[in-house]
């Protein structure tokens, strides 16, 4: 198989995937999820012309008074009695305007004397300190389109639009398999020949920013039967992610195990660095992503494939990472025939490449807050040059 360009591999992965079924959940459980249908306003906001300040509702043409204070309007009451000429109504923030009033005199500019009121300063134009009915949004307006992510401001909008429940895609279940005879669980002793398995905790941490349920199936030895059994167990999930065993060595058994478990492979090997041995396919109803074992390769491929896949099946319309531009603080070498995703951090002087770009260099990876994308065959770049950058969450 020749090396597949990243964008083509992402498109093929999305084409393999199906959106998860729609469910209706209370808004409190929808945070960070994507709307599965357009959300339409069930009410006007504001519901009437409301005062934006504490003061007096008056007719602007009668400025500066005197007015006779004829009553009161507070939030939580229905429409007050109409305002007769020469009258003012005491009013509070969020309260409905009496019919006939067209401006609010704030109480700081009002001089009450018994029930007679005059204005002390500032002209009073029509509409001053009034929030017009439906000026925020009107009933039947589309508040949010399907595919919008429900952050805090959109939760507020949905609730003000009259919704207690919202339609979202079901939460994906993501099964994690860590392959390798050399691996021990986090915190366990590491006699010679062994190392702590860091990929599953890292992937779980990356997935913590995206609503999903994680099923950690632990460490699987480099043994064909054990891997086939583990993959079959994992097939109950919506997405199966393995790390390690993806390359061409005698102990790299993920691909044959996947095929023996009944999986159909769609692609293997991507024109990217790190992350070349990435593979993807379907196993029953589950999507399968085989990530390379090197921690940096697993991190970068998860950023470019796993997180976008989770967002895609969850209903996101823009599942791919954001690509911006920034200047380089130092020089970069020319690039070979794979797109390079360099780990870097943002300094006041521009992007700084981390101390090692080796795909096993975990200490250097931990310095990064972004990836510099250098397309295949880019020439060397000088300080001050603009390059493509993907911020890391
Ligand atoms: N002859 C070739 N050798 C390699 C090629 C190649 O094209 N030809 N590709 C290289 C590239 S690129 C990568 S990336 C790696 C990927 O290898 P695997 O996916 O098969 O990963 P392993 O060999 O199982 O492990 C690599 C490395 O990562 C460590 N590891 C594995 N799992 C974990 C984990 N859960 N936590 C922490 N560290 C882990 C493992 O111990 C190895 O050191 O292949 C190159 N080889
Ligand atoms: O793709 Mo590997 O991840 O270059 O080291």
UniProtKB/TrEMBL annotation:
Give the enzyme's EC designation.
2.10.1.1
One Pfam assignment: MoCF_biosynth
Pathway(s) the chain acts in: Cofactor biosynthesis; molybdopterin biosynthesis
Kindly give the SUPFAM superfamilies that the UniProt entry links to this protein.
MoeA C-terminal domain-like, MoeA N-terminal region -like, Molybdenum cofactor biosynthesis proteins
* Cofactors: Mg(2+)
* Transferase in keyword set: yes
As its record notes, the protein acts as a catalyst of: adenylyl-molybdopterin + molybdate = Mo-molybdopterin + AMP + H(+)
Keyword DNA repair on entry:
no
Q: Where is the MoaB/Mog domain?
A: 175-312
Q: What is the superkingdom listed in this entry's lineage?
A: Bacteria
What keywords tag this UniProt record?
Answer: Magnesium, Metal-binding, Molybdenum, Molybdenum cofactor biosynthesis, Transferase
Question: What does this chain do?
Answer: Catalyzes the insertion of molybdate into adenylated molybdopterin with the concomitant release of AMP.
Q: Which family does it belong to?
A: Belongs to the MoeA family.
Protein name (Swiss-Prot/TrEMBL): Molybdopterin molybdenumtransferase
Q: Which organism is it from?
A: Sphingobium cyanobacteriorum
Source organism lineage? Bacteria, Pseudomonadati, Pseudomonadota, Alphaproteobacteria, Sphingomonadales
